[in-house]
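Feature request disguised as a bug: please show the residue count (783) next to Zinc finger FYVE-type containing 1 in the output. Example input:
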Amino acid sequence: MSGQGPSVDKGMNTILVCQESYACGGSDEAAFECDECGSLQCVRCELELHRQERMRNHDRVRIAPGHVPFCDSCKGDNSGCGVNGGRLRAVVRCQGCKINLCLDCQKRTHSGVNKRKHPVTPYPPPGQVQDSSLEAGDGGEMEALKAKLEKVCSFLLVDAKEEMQLKDEEDFVSRLDCRPEELLKVVSIFGNTGEGKSHTLNHTFFLGREVFQTSPTQESCTVGVWAAMDPIHRVVVIDTEGLLGAGSNQGQRTRLLLKVLAVSDLIIYRTHADRLHDDLFKFLGDASDAYLKHFTRELKATTARCGLDVPLSTLGPAVIIFHETVHTKLLGSDNPSESAERLLQERFRKLGLFPEAFSSIQYRGTRTYNPPTDFSGLLRSLEQQLDNNTTRSPRSANVIYRALQALSERFSGDIPEEHLASNSFFPDEYFTCSSICLSCGSGCVNSMNHLKEEVDHEAKHRCRYTAQYDNRIYTCKACYEGGKEVIVIPKTTASSDSPWFGLATYAWSGYVIECPNCGVIYRSRQYWYGNQDPVDTVVRTEIQHIWPGSDGFLKDNNNAAQRLLDGVNYISQSVSELSVKPAKAVTSWLTDQIAPAYWKPNSLILKCSKCSEVFQDNDTKHHCRACGEGFCDGCSTKNRPVPERGWGLAPVRVCDACSLNRGVSEALEEEEGGTLSRRVGEAVQNTLGAVVTATYIPLGLMKDAARPAYWVPDQDIRCCCECQRDFSAPRLSIHHCRACGQGVCDDCSPERRAVPSRGWDHPVRVCNTCHQKPGDLYSCYSL
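Example output, currently without the count:
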């Protein structure tokens, strides 16, 4: 090392030499001070000594200009020389004894006659020399680094509800202030709340500048996931919310940590406890299991689905456990023959945990006798891991963002409260589908949101049969023996039968079971007596799970009654459509024949006398009982007695204008007989209308009784499932899609398709959504 500069007093110790003499002979200039070796070391001795496994994790500090070593005499001594039994910095170096001494130890050990004459070299005050060195040489470099860091600020990446807070990957690149093609690594930090995670990142990567917010209050200052770019090491630094904190959505917040872990290349687990707690090992062990079980497969799928140029590693990140103590020794310091990593693995084994997902687990400890905390050892370990690209190679910011976004979309949603009390940090329920089989209660084992990728529900165990859901399916026995598994379903008619002939056959021979390969394999009433059950002869059964929202197994396809009603309705509608105009003409003529003389004939009424709306074929014309003019329904809503026209004292229909005119002259000419005949005619029409209406009541009852099991009942249908129009509107009839069974209007179901799995082998009404589906509708069932 060079001299300390002009501010150093003459006669002061300006050079520190290696105290180990392991590789250099004790003549080289010291470059490191090892806290656990208790000596100053040159570059060669430091390298050779700490290659040994038992000394690899020693806490070493690079010597800066003006460095003052600790006192060699009081180090490890409990005599009280140091504050609270700690060590003091040396003030002199005895050239005769070749040791560094603090003021108290010099007086205690060199007060005798012999040692009093030993030559000593004083050390400069640490603060004075460090300040002068910064002014002399390092000030310019430090100012340049600070200027770079002034521009860095953190931003919220994911909130506590697992929602991404950036618009897209371009926004992510812009916030990081990096080039889109620049290859980066990700460093994240974990630990319990209040352990100083944000403080650690600020002092390790940003020279103590508060890039990540810290707070002295009891409330956590980090909620969600925050990110920033380290411009010196060119890495993405991620700060996370602490474990064991107070707040809602604890399950979602914990799950968010594992998503961050999955996209990280290096994670720091920060602990300030004097002894390593079991929570640390349990967190890492559970995270490893969840990563291998749920995230490895999803990362592979994300690589293929997103077309990423850089494959996402299926091996997890490297872990550095940063352990800061005050009153206790660091792990392994009292047993130099055992490495800290080996002691960690032994601790994992005792707890029954195996963190196989992580590429490495390294221990880095520091003992803080007096603040501030020394983060230099942690930074050296981070730099070594970041230079290692064996298992985790750098990738662009676009890839990092898309991977985190894909994991957020897959593993999202509310977590039931009963799963929050789990003993595991990352229970399977945080990442798997929440659907439960209605029959046996088994849970789905697929990942969350798997239905978006058209992946069906799966369960670990076989289901049991329940009569409530009748969760049996039939497979053709002949095909099964031939190596195929073909599902068959009972239905009304065979696919080769015409609709009316099929109904006649059904009435005589019962339902059929038809296999696409073998044809009709069973008829329920094929013989007069002795018909066997199909399970005993031609089919075999499988018990299937019943998942919420599924269609069931569509076994009840006996739609003969509905087929008959459809035919009757078709014939009646055809007759009605062909006879509507003649019926209107006859009704109009009959009304004119029995109308009073003052009524305007129907043939002359072309539009409403008040609003002038032109009457259409289906519109009804109303006559005002007072003036006799023709009006629409909306302009003749009033009722009042019209005794002067012979209608007695009972209220009858009048137009709006006549309802206000109470002074109609009684001298008006009227024909009592015509009024009487009209009253008789209205009574007859009302009676006939009641009879016609009454015929629709049993038809509605028949329709409900004939409804197939999968059809939504008419009383439960409020609007069209396609256009959402309300069926309470006039002239809007309810129809059923033969594929899905939902209620649909006529305009949204113009197409016709066969639905064999529902028992409709000929083209029938389907909604637009089902019509657009490729292949046979509802013809495939998974076993």
